[in-house]
Amino acid sequence: MLDIIRLLPESLANQIAAGEVVQRPASVVKEMLENSVDAEATTIELVLQDAGKILIQVIDNGKGMSETDARMCFERHATSKIITQDDLYNIQTFGFRGEAMASIAAVAQVELRTRQEDQEVGTLIYIEGSEVKKHEPTATQQGTSLAVKNLFFNTPARRKFLKSNSVELRHSTQEFERVALANPHINFSMHHNNQEVYNLKEGKLARRIVAMFGKSYQSNLLTCQEDVETIKLLGYVGKPQAAKKTKGNQYFFVNNRFIKSGYLHHAVMTAYEGLLPKDAHPFYVLFIEIDPKKIDINVHPTKTEIKFDDERTVYVVVQSAVKQALGVHQVVAPLDFDTDANFLNPANYRNHLVGEDTNKGNYNNEENEEEPRTFFSDFSKYNNDDTENSKDFIGRYDKDENKGNYGNYINEPFNRNKDLKKQERPEPTERQKNNQKNWERIYLNDEQREELGTRNWEMNNKQALGNENEILPIPNSQSPIPQTFRSSANNLSKAELDAEIKSSKSKIENSDKRHVFWVAGRFVASPTKSGMILIDASAAHERILYERYEQRISKSTTNSATSQQILFPPTLTFSVVDYELLKEVLPELKNLGFSIEINEELEKKQQVRLIGLPADLLKEKGESILEALLEQFKYNQTTIKIPKRENILRAFAKRASMQAKTFFSNEEMQSLIDELFACQQPNYTPDGKKIFMLLDTKMIEQLFL
């Protein structure tokens, strides 16, 4: 029998290896930037054309290479980073495998120009598909210039799997940001299609963060540091109020190498527990310095996953450092352990603040030798180290127009020899009077409460809501709306799903429409024939908006949605990634009702002018909805594979529905129910979350067993 195992040609072996190392333009950007950092460059420039599909070029002023090294670097497993096996467990450079340059040269046209400081001339090498086409001396500046052209030119099957320019540019920008953040002592610049994206000067880490992500971060950074025997942690975390709805701008670096670690991310999120709104993600840039012998970075092709010898210790250090950073910068009033807050009479809370004992009458009591304590005296006692924060806190009372209520008791000491009964009590503010009435109202008997509620219900609703109505009726249409989602969790057939929807509609239609309730600032409750229904108002609004705009966006561009014009159109500036994405989805945005102006002058600055908004949006939130919509669109791209039109619909419905009010009138709640069950798929949001729950009588009875 003939032998069938044979050695692969070198070019084919390199292409196979390139499948692991070079997956997209961003992979090339990462390897080239890290090589420049290893070469001790102080200035690094990245140039991209068509998101890196046509050209990726990195120019640095590092040490450069000799003529022999320049040729040798394109061989497989050739490296200057390690020599012995022991070096593999003491890695202090980004590269060490010797695979990147050979893999890149196997699937692209590569031009290398390099010169060392002590050389008069440099070296030029041109390689095409692992084959050296040119190798000659050349005049060039000190350092290295590496240009990668026409990526995957010889593997069209790989090239066709590349995403749109906006997606590929986003990935390349992320790699650039990671390397730039890890090395604030290096000057970085980035250009795309002859436009400057970043120009980052060397400086401190905080300055680099602000330069990359915007001035809004300047006031939202908290210093985070911890130094124990084997681990040192430095960096910044964001204030809770600066958290975003989508993940991003979260960075871990171990010995200056960017890593991904769900375990350490959990440590950060645990430290933020109780401080973040639902589904909010904090900003952080954290550097961990650890003995290279205590980690293993050779466990993943992209080196973004590492193993720690003692992972638990690292977890505790990260969690402790973040908690400490949040604690130091949070101004929180201390608890008064002398008073049981659970048994404090709310009606007399104002008296407690100003030091009046309702039981004894006054503090001028011979048995009580201790100076009376107040909320403010406790605050000052526990916050002497942070005088500025204390002054800011107290200043809110000093500057109050009703200063006499509390301000006089802050800075003036109590006179023990003076009967507090004889002191003039400050007049209560209108807010205090209303607060007292609200507490008294809780204890009204049933007849009094019913009488009061009947008299004031409609008046209070009108005052709270005005004439604003965010939820508009869906236009009647006989044309069916395509089914876009069916929850796999229920795994129902179409007939079963239709029967469930029909049953839900029937129960609602047979219910008493006069009885609807607003629960916990989020849910709408209504009795049905068999029990009651509980609806998530925001989720219902999302489904309503989705189906409404699905009809509109399905039509031609000439029948775009109604737009409300903005009196003073704002000019919005975007990052290069978001700007490319915005231009890509512009037709869909127009169909939704956005009116956006882009001209040559604005395009140079990556700006747009927002002329109009969809009629359903609140004007005061219109400017932020566009940025939020793009963020949601990008998040959907990374989590689910759906067409662009479907993505923009889901993103818009989710972000627009977040404008839900904190209270609905009876009419609005009933309208929400009617519109929800007029939808083709009222049971679930477009991304599969449950909208309502039917509680039959048996389920309710079970709660009381």
Summarize the structure.
The chain has 705 residues and is of the alpha+beta class. The protein is built from 25 helices and 23 strands. Mean pLDDT is 75; it is low at 331-425, 438-450 and 452-491.
Fill in the keyword field for this structure.
705 residues; alpha+beta; Heat Shock Protein 90; Ribosomal Protein S5, domain 2; 4 domains; five-stranded mixed β-sheet; 18% strand
Domain tally: 4
The total of beta strands comes to 23
Q: Can you list the strand order of the major beta sheet?
A: 5-4-3-6-2-1-7-8
Report the portion of residues in β strands.
15-25%
**Multimeric state of these chains?**
single chain
Quickly name the level 1 CATH class of the largest domain.
Alpha Beta
What is the H level of CATH, i.e. the homologous superfamily of the largest domain? MutL, C-terminal domain, regulatory subdomain
Percent of residues in helices: 25-40%
CATH architect. name of the largest domain: 2-Layer Sandwich
Number of helices: 25
Estimate the global geometry from the Cα principal axes.
globular
- The parts where pLDDT drops under 50 for at least 5 residues are 331-425, 438-450, 452-491
What number is the mean pLDDT? 75
